[in-house]
Automatic annotation (TrEMBL):
The keyword Transport applies. CDD domains: ABC_PstB_phosphate_transporter. It comes from Halosolutus amylolyticus. This is Amino acid ABC transporter ATP-binding protein. It holds the Pfam family ABC_tran.
Length: 255
């Protein structure tokens, strides 16, 4: 299952963010999108997540132009994509319930009622997938704690676990470690690689070029209103074909 943006354009009013941008992610690969602040990385992720439609070009899932479908069919595709935003939004409940949230709304009703019933009668108050996802981000022991008592870094890890728990085809991460210390950053990066090894396609938008180098199979460099370079990560860092990409990577381009 491949998700791709093909020749997409996006503007906010008269303000063009990008045009002619193409990017794909396949199962079991990590693609990093790097570029200066404000270049449009989050905007591109929102298009891939099917939150917004491109002004031109297509977003295709398994070759299907998703915006040509009915709202209902498009929603089915949207549910296969998990997105983690820069700001973790958790609600006032246990960490385990937060991690299981996506699961509960996505399950068919009978399952959902069954889980709610089990919880009501004092049985499991989370599912195996949510617990496993919490283990992946090193927070299994905090399952019973209220999410509002977590540190910022822990909250970001729970938001990640929530996206992972419902086993999406594609996971889109917007600056997933921007507020994290090195230890928490390493936890998230390991979880990204674990997701990839499970066959999930992952796109990571990041300011952190070192992170791209550590986790990404392919890297796209966004500059101005374009993706100026997209290739195997090693190639982009060691021998980029675009001179501007080289300058950006060497820290010589000031924006
Ligand atoms: N809802 C919006 N309305 C108007 N302009 C917007 C909106 N969202 C983003 N923009 C503008 O679009 C441009 C791209 O923003 P975007 O958030 O996609 O960049 P980014 O590369 O993700 O930045 P950062 O790395 O700082 O998160 C910016 O100039 C931003 O101000």
């Amino acid at each position: 299952m491949t998700l791709e943006a093909v020749d997409v354009r996006r503007a906010y009013g008269d303000e063009l963010v990008f045009d002619g941008v193409s990017l794909s992610v396949s199962p079991g690969e990590v693609v990093a999108v790097i570029g200066p602040s404000g270049v449009g990385k989050s905007t591109l992720l929102r298009l891939l997540a099917l939150f917004d439609a491109p002004d031109a070009g297509t977003i295709a899932y398994e070759g299907t132009d998703v915006w040509a479908l009915s709202d209902e069919r498009r929603l089915e595709y949207r549910r296969r994509v998990g997105m983690v935003f820069q700001e973790a939004s958790l609600f006032d409940a246990s960490v385990r319930r937060n991690a299981a949230y996506g699961l509960r709304v996505r399950q068919p009703w009978p399952d959902r009622i069954r889980h709610e019933f089990a919880r009501f009668v004092g049985g499991a108050n989370g599912t195996g997938d949510a617990i496993e996802a919490l283990e992946t981000v090193g927070l299994a022991e905090k399952g019973d704690q209220n999410a509002e008592s977590l540190s910022g870094g822990e909250a970001q890890r729970v938001a990640f676990a929530r996206a992972l728990a419902y086993d999406p085809d594609v996971l889109l991460l917007d600056e997933p470690t921007s507020d994290l210390d090195p230890r928490n950053t390493a936890v998230i990066e390991d979880a990204v690689l674990e997701a990839r090894d499970r066959g999930i396609g992952v796109v990571v938008a990041t300011h952190d070029m070192h992170q791209a180098r550590r986790v990404a199979d392919r890297t796209a460099v966004m500059l101005g209103t374009e993706i100026i370079e997209v290739d195997e990560t090693e190639t982009v860092f060691d021998e980029p074909s675009d001179g501007r990409a080289r300058k950006f990577i060497d820290g010589e381009l000031i924006y």
